[in-house]
């Protein structure tokens, strides 16, 4: 199992010292990261990743609101092979026709991305699970409208906050899910209450096992009350030890 870190987790540290923050991530033991806002930071970020032996298999960028050619060009420079649109507000997920329009935009982005050799995906929050369209969650309805080459990055914590069982949702979405966000906590919207993996209410290893076509599990905190570097270290230690234990028992 391959683990990465969503760099939005460290946004405050990155704004103060990008190279130093990337070095700390590598020192903790991460070998992969998931950048955000990478068009603006491509040159500095690329140098820091190279210097610390890190790769970025995926990255977040607002494909439906910013210049796609600029995004795909920066992604290619950074070695990002999957660009994931990270966010579309709740009002876009309440009606079938709005979801159809979003799917069409993302399908078009995927077609353009293919010209750069880059795959396109989408990352959910809670509202795609809270909204029900024709008897299923808006996320499931959305998935049914996507072209085959598109992928999903399922934020498993927000699935649970949205009132759904992440294990069940991952089973329903099947091979479309190539990435997940791994986070833990009390399953509330209080981001500061989020916890390292294995310390909250998410059955983290069961969730990972349910994503049968998973390529990368991405650790993320939306926020954290403690020392964030300690938090990401605890998450990685939990994942590595449990992955090793499962491997030994296989």
TrEMBL record:
<dbReference type="Pfam" id="PF01261">
    <property type="entry name" value="AP_endonuc_2"/>
</dbReference>
<keyword id="KW-0413">Isomerase</keyword>
<keyword id="KW-0119">Carbohydrate metabolism</keyword>
<dbReference type="InterPro" id="IPR036237">
    <property type="entry name" value="Xyl_isomerase-like_sf"/>
</dbReference>
<dbReference type="InterPro" id="IPR050312">
    <property type="entry name" value="IolE/XylAMocC-like"/>
</dbReference>
<dbReference type="GO" id="GO:0016853">
    <property type="term" value="F:isomerase activity"/>
</dbReference>
<dbReference type="InterPro" id="IPR013022">
    <property type="entry name" value="Xyl_isomerase-like_TIM-brl"/>
</dbReference>
<feature type="domain" description="Xylose isomerase-like TIM barrel">
    <location>
        <begin position="23"/>
        <end position="211"/>
    </location>
</feature>
<protein>
    <submittedName>
        <fullName>Sugar phosphate isomerase/epimerase</fullName>
    </submittedName>
</protein>
């Amino acid at each position: 199992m391959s683990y990465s870190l969503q760099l939005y987790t460290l946004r405050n540290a990155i704004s103060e010292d990008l190279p130093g923050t990337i070095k700390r991530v590598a020192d903790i033991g991460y070998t992969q990261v998931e950048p955000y806002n990478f068009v603006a930071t491509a040159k500095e970020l690329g140098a820091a990743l190279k210097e610390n032996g890190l790769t970025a298999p995926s990255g977040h960028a607002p494909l439906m609101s910013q210049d796609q050619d600029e995004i795909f060009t920066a992604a290619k420079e950074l070695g990002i092979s999957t660009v994931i649109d990270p966010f579309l507000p709740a009002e876009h997920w309440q009606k079938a026709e709005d979801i159809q329009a979003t799917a069409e935009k993302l399908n078009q982005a995927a077609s353009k991305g293919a010209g750069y050799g880059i795959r396109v995906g989408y990352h959910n929050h809670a509202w795609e699970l809270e909204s029900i369209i024709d008897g299923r969650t808006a996320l499931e309805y959305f998935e049914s409208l996507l072209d085959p080459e598109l992928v999903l990055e399922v934020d498993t914590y927000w699935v649970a906050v949205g009132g759904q069982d992440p294990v069940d949702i991952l089973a329903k979405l099947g091979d479309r899910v190539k990435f997940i966000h791994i986070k833990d906590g009390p399953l509330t919207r209080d981001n500061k209450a989020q916890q390292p993996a294995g310390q909250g209410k998410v059955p983290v290893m069961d969730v990972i096992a349910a994503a049968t076509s998973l390529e990368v599990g991405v650790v993320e905190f939306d926020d954290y009350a403690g020392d964030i570097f300690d938090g990401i270290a605890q998450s990685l230690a939990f994942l590595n030890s449990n992955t090793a234990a499962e491997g030994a028992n296989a």
